[in-house]
Amino acid sequence: MSLIAEPLEFEKPIVNLERQLAELRDRASDSDIDMSSEMKRIEDKLTKTKTDIYRNLSPWQRVQIARHVQRPFMLDYVEHSFDDFLELHGDRHIGDDEAMPAGFAYLEGRRVVVIGHQKGRDTKENLRRNFGSAHPEGYRKALRLMRMAEKFRLPIVTLIDTPGAYPGIGAEERNIAEAIAFNLREMMRLTVPIVAVVIGEGGSGGALGIGIADRVLMMENAYYSVISPEGCAAILWKDRKYATEAAQALKLSANDLLDLNIVDEVIPEPMGGAHHDHLGSALNLKAALIKHLNELDAFPETDLLDNRYEKFRKFGDVKDRGGRRSA
What is the pTM of this model? Predict the structure, then answer.
């Protein structure tokens, strides 16, 4: 039995049991001693431990899973969920941004435009991808392809996975805030269906810059928040060590956001998280995309735009204890 690659702190009891089971199997294969009853006992305990841990994950533990280096990234999902991906480059103003790959692809025979954030698994790739934090040219490239999708009447799929837009001096000089704000306005006006999926980290405006959509979905162990738990803890408690409490207070997990009607569906992940099974996660994502795009096909253009506007207009509309509405 293979052990968990790069286990998180809360996964160590599982790793210990898997190690014990592997040792028993090796011992049994090297001798004539019957260890089946002992192996069965550990297997049962392992199953129960996995169930207890993974079905009761805290928001902070889900944040840790969302950031796992072995989690499938945007291009992994493109490889397993789509066909014939053709990447396009450049924003026609400054240059290309490899933190934001984008291009044409087929989804079960349907031609679509796919755009998303891409992280790296090692230092070299992370430097190339800027740790998934896009520059202004990334958002301008994304909008260029969205307008191309509108021209050719193709649906748009965005895959969100970023700790936030790049906050460096160069990005500020090239108007990162304006690039994101412009995308928000223009995505609200696009006349083709848009489905956005938070596949890992959904950090602040960096996520929202490609997140205006008719349907917003989330992978089970992704998170979507205006600020990171560490950043929130540094502001409210003056210490990043309170990230666990901040994650709980922010209501950033998929199920919390589903309850608040911020997202439209939570896409299930294999036991333990998407990093344990890239293909299984990609198949779940693919099925959800096909379902929602088929549903959106039924809407006339005017209804599509009206529904998109109303969807985002309702955010923050809550009732107080007296039943009165406030924004």
Answer: 0.90
